[in-house]
Amino acid sequence: MANNKNVENNESAVEKKQYLTFKVGKEIYGLRLNQAKEIIKPPKITSVPNTEDYILGVINLRGQVVPVINLKNKLGLTEDTTIDINQDKSKKIVVININGMLIGVYVDGVNEVINISVEDIEGVTENRTGIREEFIKGVSTYGDYLIIVLDLDNLLFENKEEKGA
Amino acid sequence: MSDNNEYLEMFFAESEEYIMVLNDNILELENDPENMDVLNAMFRAAHSLKGMAATMRFDHLTELTHKMENMMDQIRNHKMGVNTEIIDLLFAGIDYVEEMVRKIKEDGDDEIDINDYLDKLEKKINEDTKVVEKDKEVISKDDSNFLSITEDDSYTIQDNKKELDSVYTVNVKLLKETQFKQVRASMIFKKASELGYIFKSIPKKENVEDADIDDDLVKLILISNHDPENIQEEFEKITDIENVELKKLELQVSKEKDKKKSKKKKSKSTSSKFEVSSSVRVDIGKLDKLMNMIGELLINKTRLEALNIQSEGFKDVLPQLDRVTMELHHTVMQIRMEPIGVMFNRFPRMIRDLSKSSDKDIDFVMEGKQTELDRSIIDELGDPLTHLLRNAVDHGIEKPEERVKNGKDKKGTVNLRAYQKGSEIIIEVEDDGGGINVERVVEKAKEKEVVTQKEIEEMDRDKKLQLIFEPGLSTNETVSNVSGRGVGMDVVKKTIEGLDGEIYIRSEENKGTKFVISLPLTLAIQDALMVKINGEIFAIPLSAISETLMIKSDEIKQVKGYDVIVLRDNTIPLIDSRESLNIEIEDSSYKEKDEMPVVIVKSGGKEIGLIVEELLYQQEIVIKSLGDYLDNVKNISGATIIGDGEVALILDVRDIA
Fold first, then answer.
1. Which of B623, B150, B101, B545 is nearest to B377 (CA)?
2. Angle B600-B602-B605 (CA atoms, 0-180°, nearest 5)?
3. Is B329 a catalytic residue?
4. What is the per-residue pLDDT across B471-485, written as a single tens digit (0 to 9) for each?
5. Could you tell me if B435 and B525 are in contact, meaning their C-beta atoms sit under 8 angstroms apart?
6. Over the Cα atoms of chain A, what is R_g?
7. Does B502 participate in catalysis according to the annotation?
8. Which one of B365, B387, B457, B630 is separated from B481 by 20 to 30 angstroms, measured CA to CA?
């Protein structure tokens, strides 16, 4: 909690927001650092039948049952979407705290925390990523590479809205 | 700021309570206009509410409650009579109070325009007091001066008093010039203890020695088997007593069912029976946290057991740990239990308003208010029950003329009852109204394409009735502001199932409709059978299992193309558990094995055989939800954490069976 507050303070001071960047497939993605709660080594994931394909399953996070989503699948990246946990040690689960829920996001690797100012995030004019537009807040260049900033609200809750109504 | 928040929290909690008390008592007052206890309770609630509002500087609320208090005072002093108009005015006032509290919660202020209402109130008070003023002087004002008891008190007393005991409220007045009033007061207490038990008193017994004695008056609620004259005499024997007034109280205890239920709570050990244990108000969130921690403790205990350490000390400690964990769990569950009456209490008012606005004459009967349920379940039940009751009034009970035409009493009855049955709590909403036309439900279901003609043909009447819980099926076309709020029976059913409960309907035309809800007594911990399906471990609640057995492949018979087994002359359908879970069957079907384990599960009177890969062991599981993100996963009711720290899913056999 205290940490989050610090982050918030820093942001307003430098007019920049902190983003956590991570790799999925070939691209680098970013999400607001204050939405990320922790990064963990993937434990055993129990798959849940009768759920959408992008739901990998659930994990035990210190006694709490947390769903884990397969970002590759959710983003519609057509390449290999199967996941072999033993294959690569760099694979991680980023646990995010959104709308009062904890959700694990399975990623291929976590890169770093960077500062991006709001103006530097450009809207996507030409969607080369193959990802549905509403899932993306924008793109930003950082050093040599391009970061795709995700809109987690839309990404995770696109179906939930209709359901709730 | 945070200090203030804390007060606000308290303010909300307490105002909610007072609003409830007011609603209940106004309703009671309508039935029994002369009941002083009711008026006093109302007055006190309004007064406390006013006090709180004033402290928190909610001026509108203060003014409103002040005016209402005035009115109640006038009634109490017999300067005003009680009639429907006044009752309506009071109810309207409560509604404004509620609205203000809500506004404070949302916007932080209580600015609601109530001038019209206040004017009306003022006018009414002025009008009425003039009329009544003259002829009501006779009645003694002191009536209101007595201590009174609440309904809860009544139960406590009822449980503890002996058969011949009566309950008295006693005022002992000391002479004004008495010195050492505290000493006299303790003598009064001493005498009272000789005569019986002191249930309640002002000042309190424990601090009589340094209490101020207001108006030189000691007030008592005394339970005693002496007759009133005797008591009066005994008190008068104490020196420096000016007078003793005493009144016998009737206990407001309803029916045997409640008595039985509340008897269980009777504490065994207390030496002075009426020492009411002190209590604290606890945020339900904290209890949830405690529950979670106990859950973790249990999980770790299971893990410890799995370690199977070969040492004598270990074998000693485990059962101890087991006992402590279970007791802890049990205690927290107890703390979380609340009588369902706290939620039921909102309904009489609702039914009254509904029946008035729809011109129906309705007798509303509640039973089993003392039935205890987990607090979180009670909270969730409010909406579905409201919906069912609204339906009962709106669609169920017919207009008086129609009832008479059909040879029924012109007054309809709506019953709401709760009781415990084994490890379940049953709640029933029953009306003696027109009942449900099954054919119309079927028509509608076909129209909405919920079922096919073929499916209909295979259904019996009972099954057809249950179609009412399908989305989009509400047989009454007219949408009124009462029931037609876009919430359907499907939502009711979903909510109940979300609580791991079941609901079904019975209805007979022209006789009435009955909804039966069954809920588990506790949510958090259950016994379960662990099974392996497709290499993963699943838990099946023991409460849903009737038996397990091994069957040979040649015992499987075919009926209408479905697999069945015959068990003690019953034909039970067989299902491969992987099919119901939509798991791709990679290896050969279980059925090709010579022998396979089958779990016979039951739900709603039906039984079904579930073929699994392996029966593992029986275990206490801590039920965890899959979280909001994965709500309503088909055939899965939740998850639990097993010995090695992995998550195992809990099978929801309701949908499978």
1. B623
2. 135
3. no
4. 776 544 444 444 444
5. no
6. 16
7. no
8. B365
d(CA A134, CA A158): 9
Q: What is the DSSP letter of A46?
A: B
Name the residue of chain B whose CA is nearest to A159's CA: B629
A82 interaction partners in chain B (CB closer than 8 Å) = none
Which two three-digit tokens encode residue B245? 């007034």
Please name the helix (run of DSSP H) or strand (run of DSSP E) that holds residue B140, with its range, or none: none
Q: What is the ipTM of this complex?
A: 0.79
Strand residue runs (E) in chain A? 16-24, 27-32, 36-40, 55-61, 64-70, 92-98, 101-107, 109-117, 136-142, 145-150
d(CA B91, CA B87): 6
Please give the model's pTM, rounded to 2 decimal places: 0.49
pLDDT tens digits, one per residue of B599-617: 998 876 678 888 888 899 8
Q: Are B240 and B183 in contact (CB under 8 A)?
A: no
Rounded CA gap, B318 and B72, in Å? Answer: 62
Residues in chain A: 165
| Cα of B599 to nearest chain A Cα, Å | 19
Which amino acid belongs to residue B607?
Answer: E
Per-residue pLDDT at B480: 42
Check if B69 is active-site: yes
Q: Which residues of B touch A67 (CB under 8 A)?
A: 626-627, 629-630
Q: Measured between alpha carbons, how far is B650 from B624 in angstroms, rounded to an integer?
A: 9
- Among A49, A60, A66, the residue with its CB nearest the CB of B645 is A60
A129-147 as b/e, with b when 16 or more CB fall inside 10 Å? Answer: bebeeebbbbbbebeeeeb
